[in-house]
Specification:
Layout (H helix, E strand, L loop, with lengths): L1 E6 L7 H9 L4 E8 L6 E9 L5 H8 L3 E2 L2 E2 L1 E4 L8
Antiparallel strand pairs: 1-3, 1-6, 2-3, 4-5
Length: about 80
């Protein structure tokens, strides 16, 4: 699976909306807006997993800088999560 990091999201965007946005460019396996555990509010970023068949560079090109509720989102290939000590 191919995973994208999506930053500078408006705090009102839901995981479903994120899936819709990226679904225009590729087959989305999952989309997740990261929220604060204490209050449940968005942290302004999320992750989108794409099907193996997706051209990740084309998706990044099509979505990076796209304006969403007045904010230009940033899209890049997600780095593997570092283990916590």
């Amino acid at each position: 699976m191919k995973k994208l990091f999506v930053g500078n999201l408006p705090y009102t965007v839901t995981s479903e909306q994120l899936a819709e946005i990226f679904g225009e460019s590729a087959e989305v396996v999952s989309a997740n807006v990261i929220t604060d555990r204490m209050n449940g509010r968005s942290k302004g970023f999320g992750f989108v997993e794409l099907a193996e068949s997706a051209d990740i560079n084309a998706v990044i090109e099509a979505t990076n800088g796209k304006e969403l509720d007045g904010r230009a989102i940033t899209v890049s290939e997600a780095r593997p999560q570092q283990p916590r000590d």
